[in-house]
Amino acid sequence: MGDDSTTRAAQAASLFAGEAWFDPIEVGIRERIRGFIEALFEEELTTALGRGRCELAVGAPLGYRNGTRER
Asked: Residue 3 gets which letter from DSSP?
């Protein structure tokens, strides 16, 4: 029998407590949601400005894009 279930439960509980919290499922979900929102925003901006990223405007520009950065 070797393993004590109460010891394993205590170790599992300490893994998800305090500032050391790390849940790979939550991280994956957050990354997918962020990617979806960024793609949606990029598509809307491209439509509103009438040009893609790094493209020059024909005639007077309708607006401008600021650069993007990794977080």
From this structure: -
In angstroms, rounded to a whole number, what is the distance separating the alpha carbons of residues 9 and 6? 5
Per-domain boundaries in the chain: 22-54
Contacts of 52 (CB under 8 A, 6+ apart): 46
- Given a contact cutoff of 8 angstroms between Cβ atoms, the answer to whether 48 and 63 are in contact is yes
Measured between alpha carbons, how far is 15 from 8 in angstroms, rounded to an integer? 11
CA angle 52, 56, 58 (to 5 degrees): 105
Amino acid occupying residue 31: E
Question: Which pLDDT tens digit goes with each residue over 12-57?
Answer: 666 556 666 778 899 999 999 999 999 999 899 888 888 877 777 7
